[in-house]
Design goal:
about 220 residues; Spore Coat Polysaccharide Biosynthesis Protein SpsA, Chain A; about 45% helix; alpha/beta
Length: about 220
């Protein structure tokens, strides 16, 4: 498992507690932070059954995840945002999904645990985006084989945003199956509360559209070439 941690973030302990009774014993959990290991890190993770390590990486979420993926010793990589929360049996659902579809790119449904009430519409929009357009995003907990991850080129470190979006398009160009896990990842809606629901939602839609258009053109061109 790989968890990118931005400067000043302090959400990761809650995620690790969610995982403490779910992950198989000895699972490697890599927290990829741009800052040095927090003073309380070892005390926080000592009681967990999994093997948690803090990595100081290059800045930028794509670089953080790629740096951690390079040293990961697992055959399968699971990427979670640090403010994610997991319900009981989420890991069991993921294990079942990867057993059933070992060569797929797996993702969870998304649920906001706080923020404006209007985020229920965003949850519905995420469901439609995945079902109709096959476009899950990184806050939905991507999981795939390590070999497949590097075959797709890893996360694009050149893009200023949307490395998760571009990764999904790379998978689609290769014909990789996108497989929903029968569980949810819960996430914070704090940025919608801080920046405004309408403003944040419209900004995300615009950025997604701007990034998707050239990818759609590339995909259609490849199919007709």
């Amino acid at each position: 498992m790989i968890v990118p941690v931005a400067a000043g973030e302090s959400y990761w302990p809650a995620l690790l507690h969610d995982l403490s009774e779910q992950l198989p014993v000895g699972t490697q959990v890599l927290l990829a932070g741009v800052e040095r290991e927090p003073d309380a890190f070892q005390d926080t993770v000592r009681a967990f059954r999994f093997d948690a390590k803090w990595l100081q990486t290059r800045p930028g979420r794509a670089a953080q995840m790629n740096d951690a993926a390079r040293i990961a010793d697992a055959e399968r990589l699971w990427f979670l945002h640090s403010d994610s929360r997991l319900p009981q049996a989420a890991c069991a659902a993921l294990i079942a999904a990867t057993t059933e579809q070992p060569d797929a790119l797996h993702y969870f449904s998304l649920q906001f645990v706080d923020g404006p009430r209007m985020l229920r519409l965003n949850e519905f929009g995420v469901m439609l985006r995945c079902r109709l357009f096959g476009l899950p995003f990184g806050d939905q907990g991507f999981c795939l084989g390590r070999e497949l991850f590097w075959r797709l080129g890893g996360f694009d470190e050149r893009s200023a945003y949307g490395e998760d979006h571009l990764f999904v398009w790379a998978a689609r160009r290769r014909g990789i199956r996108l497989h929903p896990v029968a569980s949810v990842v819960k996430t914070s809606g704090r940025k919608y509360a801080e920046r405004g629901w309408m403003r944040t939602t419209l900004r995300h839609l615009w950025l997604t559209f701007r990034q998707a258009v050239p990818e759609v053109i590339r995909l259609k061109w490849r199919r007709t070439a």
